Amino acid sequence: MLNKLLRVGEGRMVKRLDAIASHVETLDNETEALTDEQLRAKTDEFKERYAGGEALDDLLPEAFAVAREAAWRVLSQKHFHVQIMGGAALHFGNIAEMKTGEGKTLTCVLPAYLNALAGDGVHVVTVNDYLAKRDSEWMGRVHRFLGLETAVILTGMTSDQRREAYNADITYGTNNEFGFDYLRDNMAHSLNDLVQRGHPFAIVDEVDSILIDEARTPLIISGPADSSSKWYAEFARIAPLLKKDVHYEVDIRKRTIGVHEEGVEFVEDQLGIDNLYEAANSPLVSYLNNALKVKELFERDKDYIVRNGEVLIVDEFTGRVLEGRRFNEGLHQAIEAKERVEIKAENQTLATITLQNYFRMYDKLSGMTGTAQTEAAELDQIYKLGVLPIPTNKPMVRVDQTDLIYKTEEAKFDAVVDDILERHQKGQPVLIGTTSVERSEYLARQLKKRGVPHNVLNAKFHEQEAQIIAEAGRSGAVTVATNMAGRGTDVVLGGNPDILADIRLRKAGLDPVDTPEEYEAAWDEMIELVKSEVADDAEKVRQAGGLYVLGTERHESRRIDDQLRGRSGRQGDPGESRFYLSLGDELMRRFNGAALEAIMNRVNLPDDVPIEAKMVTKAIRSAQTQVEQQNFEVRKNVLKYDEVMNQQRKVIYAERRTILEGEDHREQVQRMIDDVVGAYVDAATAEGYVEDWDFEQLWTAIKTLYPIEIDYKELVEENEFGERKEISAQELRDMLIADAHAAYEKREKEIESIAGENAMRQLERTILLSVLDRKWRDHLYEMDYLREGIHLRSMAQRDPVVEYQREGYDMFTGMLEGLKEESIGFLFNVAVEATPAQPAAAVAPAAPAAPAAPTAPAPLPTEQPAPARKPAPAALRAKGIDDSGDAALTYSGPSETGGTAVRQTGSSNGQTSGTRKERRAAARAGTKTGGPKPAKSRKKR
After folding, report:
1. C-alpha angle 181/186/187, rounded to 5°?
2. Do 567 and 551 touch, CB atoms closer than 8 A?
3. What gap in Å lies between CA 483 and CA 380, rounded to an integer?
């Protein structure tokens, strides 16, 4: 019913697209009359008109006509009427559902060109690096001819190469790379490190795959947490020597540890240091606290167990072992040190986002696919994207046969091989779709036994896949593929001339980016040569019945089956498709294959005799629909939880950008001082009268924050009757806040005497960023932990999502309060010195420490040069704040095969080690992103 409601008005929109396409075609004569230079000049004319206030919608007919003519002159391809309709659908922010082989890659040129005129950039998103690079070069020929720059984002590129690519008019890349660049930008410590320039418009190729299938796996950047196993072991040695109630006290109810002065002196003596609370030694405090917590509050075989040299957490409610789970903030390493097992480095989530929330940031989103109608409801609900079915250029004449069902898998595959052999002998090309790499390799072995020459594709080498798929339509060709392999390349009967011509030119050393003029000069001759070679073979294939698509199993999604079928029958070609099933197939088991098996046994059907029943085919379709709905509910539920994180992420990233862009954060810091000192006083004076307040505890807490100069004994001096002077909570609050501000003025003068004018502004910016990043990382961990167990709330008749929202909000509020306190502690206490100016780099903070005198330490990098009217401060170096900009990062995201792809980099700029071939491709693409001299066209009609 929902799908029917979503399709209301669809026909009206398709009619509107038809009218727009007809209008564009009426401009043919006008654009054909233009010379190459005049056609190119149209780009500047359109940009001027847009700058003058004309809308892109108004420019659409002329811009489409110009891009269409350029495609004809450069690629010898002219957009069909239906491709113009598809281009208009994309421009208006819809999903254009165009059947396989209808030319979606060429269609994309029209809206990309039109929207690039606005100057904000267009992102074209594809499923793998090969397609991104191929399309940027292939379709980029048209854009470069019209004076626009195209570029590609590839795995392994440096930040500088990425920035240059994003500054191009049209940027091609994969969903993972765009998402990771967004996350890295929100981990940057300088505006100069940012690579993306916004999210105005994206065209997503294979939109159902990226926005539906791959959206189940979030993008995660993780890195090693700051820790040293040496110190864990050292404090594991010291902790047993410390005595409870002598050196420290324990609050079992609150699960906290308080170290006494005697304990601090004992630890300083053991470590051979003068002051444990000196800024340089401040990280040691957390090691000490963790060692004591582990000693007193964590019991082996109750809170954790040790199995095979590994510390595993025991869930306090269920008693189950939580595999793969680790305590946060160094606690797990402290337990490992206590138990004398290997101390493993903490790998901490630094940034994460789902693909749903990344793509919803775009001002305008559109997509192309051959199979989106089955997911129309989800695409509308999650992304507000309508699906518009675009008619085929020529009527579809492919014959879709009913499914054949066998009792066993062996019998099914024997029948498959027999069918393939028969088709191969009569010269009909066959494309076999399997659901896994193992199945494809099993079938390949069977074909080899029968002497059938074939190619195997299983989503491993995209470049080779494209070449194999380009030749899969040749007479007698047999190609075994996983269902998703070779995407983005059409199976053209007789062979795909465009891909084959491009391959030959590249083998001859010509490239559309490196040698554009020579490539263009050789293109026309090469394409005509290849077309003449494949024309005769194409006719033979048509006579044999066209491409035969054979599916060895039904996929749980109807879309994947339709994608496989859609390989055959493109552009009005003859074709045929059929699926072979067995009772052992996963979907058949779901469909209640046991009942069918009982029927087959009752009629005594031999294993090698199939049944062909439309009833079964319909039932399988029904089972697929149910599975799709279940998957939709799962994705929707994941999104509900992520929406909570997304709101928090927006707040943190907006705050981060404000810090990066601002030069003066003095007012923000002053407000933080008011909030933090005020909160200390409010907590101490919340209950009772003046004589009930614990001034000693309040002053001890404030001393760890800043060097307080007021003596509370004078403030509340007792008279001869033992009564304290009267002072209100508000008076005490105002007095301490004023004292904190005075101390901050003093601190500012101290810093400026070390590093020059405006040095405090630089210190504020770096401390705020460092603390914000660390607090956010810890918050991500805590939210992940909360998410894991929240479903148990449903047992108490509570909605887990609502509970997650409520507790997540409380944790986020607590994090923001902690952020203020830690930042102020750092600003007052971190020891600094001036050093020669250094380039900006990322920093990671340690815990705030008690006051310490300025000493020689390491630079806190400057974010931005100071304004010209003021002298630029020297760079600063601060103890307790380490430069972690070159830490190895781990990137985790969805893979093409439906799993999770993980890769590691050597540094935070996203550059991977990769293979030599990958590094070479990335380097070449990165250095050649500019628009080379446009091709000279000699296309004759």
Report:
1. 95
2. no
3. 26
Q: Which residues pair with 719 in a beta bridge?
A: none
The two three-digit tokens of residue 190, written as one number: 């300088």
Contact call for residues 129 and 600 (beta carbons, < 8 A): no
| SS3 of residue 796 by DSSP | helix
Are the CB atoms for 200 and 111 separated by under 8 Å? no
Residue 167 · residue 195 · CB < 8 Å: no
Cα separation, 704 vs 3, in Å, equals: 62
Q: How far is CA 860 from CA 761, 867, 936, in A?
A: 12, 19, 53
Whether residue 832 contacts residue 877, with contact meaning beta carbons closer than 8 Å, is answered with: yes
Spatial CB neighbours of 564, under 8 Å, sequence gap ≥ 6 = 431, 433, 483, 549, 551, 577
Q: For residue 457, what is the enclosing H or E element? A: strand 455-457
Distance CA 820, CA 818 (A): 5
Please state, in angstroms and rounded to a whole number, the distance separating the CA atoms of residues 513 and 921. Answer: 12
- Reduce the DSSP state of residue 76 to 3 states and report it: coil
Q: For residue 604, which phi and psi values (nearest 5 degrees)?
A: 55, 45
Q: How many whole angstroms separate alpha carbon 137 and alpha carbon 132?
A: 9
Count of residues in the chain: 941
Q: Which tokens hold the place of 136?
A: 């940027």
Burial class (CB in 10 A: 0-12, 13-18, 19+), 713: exposed
pLDDT digits (tens, 9 = 90+) for 461-516: 566 777 788 888 899 999 998 766 556 778 888 888 888 888 888 888 888 878 88
Residue given tokens 């006579």 in the structure block:
543
Instruction: Give residue 579's pLDDT band: very low, low, confident or very high (50, 70, 90).
Output: very high
| Structure tokens that stand for 8 in this block | 């209301």
Q: Is 201 helix (H, G, I), strand (E, B) or coil?
A: strand
Q: Which two three-digit tokens encode residue 200? A: 């105005």
Q: Using CA atoms, how far apart are residues 369 and 385, in angstroms rounded to an integer?
A: 13
What's the predicted TM-score (pTM) here?
0.78
Neighbours of 280 (CB within 10 A): 19
CA atoms of 257 and 251, how far apart (whole Å): 6
Most confident of 40-49, 429-438, 711-720: 40-49
Q: How would you classify the pairing of strands 430-434 and 547-551?
A: parallel
683: number of Cβ within 10 Å? 12
Residue 341 pLDDT: 87
Q: Are 785 and 645 in contact (CB under 8 A)?
A: no
Per-residue pLDDT tens digits for 751-779: 888 877 788 888 888 889 888 988 898 88
The angle subtended at Cα 684 by Cα 681 and Cα 688, nearest 5°, is 125
Angle between the 129-138 and 916-927 helix axes, to the nearest 10 degrees?
A: 30
Q: Tell me the average pLDDT across 314-320.
A: 65
